[in-house]
Amino acid sequence: MTKSNIRPLLEEIESKARSLLSSSPISELRRLKIESADDGLCLLGSLSTWHHKQLAQELVRRLSPAPIPIRNLTSVRSEYER
To answer: Which pLDDT tens digits describe the chain residue by residue (82 residues)?
Structure first.
């Protein structure tokens, strides 16, 4: 895919991902931000477990009909930061 034809796809997936994450039963996922980058999507925010970090990434990945880069820039808080 070229940059010119990936943009509409990224915008569509970004919108669907926002909707999906905002309706999640996991409150931490509802607080995540998602942004489109040049050639993919970025997940931003802070989570309490590595499981939630991976879950968020896989939920977004499943929305795309084509492979796109997903940069999971979320941080996992240590037990002492919770």
So the answer is: 556 678 888 999 999 999 999 999 999 999 999 998 888 999 999 999 999 999 999 999 999 888 889 999 999 987 665 5
- Does residue 82 lie in a domain region? no
What pairing do the DSSP bridges indicate for beta strands 75-76 and 33-36?
Answer: unpaired
Q: In this structure, what DSSP letter does residue 79 have?
A: G
Enter the pTM of the model: 0.83
Task: Give all strands (DSSP E) within the chain, no chain letters.
Answer: 33-36, 41-44, 46-47, 70-72, 75-76
The domain in which residue 52 lies consists of 3-74
Total number of domains constituting the chain? 1
3-state secondary structure at position 58: helix
